[in-house]
Amino acid sequence: MQRPPSPAVPGSFDPWDAAFVADPYPAYAELRSRGHVSYFEPSDQWLVPHYEDVSALLRDRRLGRSYLHRFSHEEFGRPEPAPEHEPFHTLNGRGLLDLEAPDHTRVRRLVSAAFTPRTVQRLAPTVTRLAEELVGDFVAAGGGDLVASVAEPLPVAVIAEMLGIPQADRELLRPWSSAIVGMFELNPDEESARRAVRASQEFSAYLRDLIARRRRAPGDDLISALIAAHDEGDRLTEQEMVSTCVLLLNAGHEATVNTTGNGWLTLLRHPAQLAALRAEPERLLGSAVEELLRFDTPLQMFERWVLDDIEVGGTVVPRGSEVALLFGSAHRDPARFENPDTLDLARADNPHLAFGAGIHYCLGAPLARLELTQSFGALLRRAPGLRLVAEPEWNPGYVIRGPRELRVEITGP
Hints:
Layout: H1 18-22, H2 25-34, E1 38-40, E2 45-48, H3 51-58, E3 63-64, H4 73-76, H5 86-93, H6 103-114, H7 117-140, E4 143-145, H8 146-151, H9 153-163, H10 173-181, H11 190-216, H12 222-228, E5 230-231, E6 234-235, H13 238-269, H14 271-279, H15 281-295, E7 301-306, E8 310-312, E9 315-317, E10 322-326, H16 327-330, H17 365-382, E11 386-388, E12 407-410
Helix pairs in contact: 5-11, 5-13, 6-12, 7-9, 7-17, 9-13, 10-11, 10-13, 11-13, 13-15, 13-17, 14-15, 15-17
């Protein structure tokens, strides 16, 4: 496909470079200064760095997470996926995140009937208990890796509790999630694809067996509720149930883990803001969670296919293209946020896009906020002397971005 002229992407934008992953924000500022959209040849994507454009395109039905509801691969000018990757694409393609209307409308309505605000409300005591237990053990040990000890186990335990996964099987979930989301990075290599396919097969087989058991003996869990969910006789298919459960783990887990890691690193680098939060947690904790989601968001890029020609800031992006909506850049856009590079835990005007927008707005956002509020609150109360031991290494992924570990010690008040 011939590309129309567009501003050149600055060399500082390099999502495979460790220094860029550690701090992409200077490159974002340069991107915003060059215009509203830039073609990035290494990933064959159009980068969209401004808040107003990102927000509008998330709601624009001329774009889609998939194109297969309207076009074949050939019609859209895209190659057929490798046959050996089919288990991953089947699993991912039937989840809410990658469905488009009318399938998305139907599946979201049925899932919403099972995953209700009451579901989250019912989980609140469990989330509080788990957060307190994990933080208590962490404090008793005098600190350690906050990611491995608190950030990772909390959302996995909550999702497992919600789905009714037996305690003995819960250690399987994190490796499966990690392998599957590896395919969401830019230009994943063949080894990443093999791991994702294997995890997709194993996780799907596990869930099909669990669904069969819940059909025979329903329980008070989300899988049983998904089986029972119906609307005028319409029900979720087994594949839709499997894909929904996997999405809940992957999306909920990765976002919460990386918001916790990124958030505590941010707080420890801004001691005055952390001191203010410790002084008034009742007043500031809610807005602090929202500000941490904005300031160093876990999902840096959200990709969409262009189903019909669109114009972004005077540049026509043709059908068949892929746009990369840069959430991290949008959240630092001075046209929308006052002093965007300043951490302000009391920020009131904060319409961040960390949970998306439009029809794909994150269904699990209330649960994520509950987990974050409880884990941050518990650490604020019980670890007043938290101190960073070493600057972290970052995970190599850019799209879903967070520290590999966050080593801290607890030295007392």
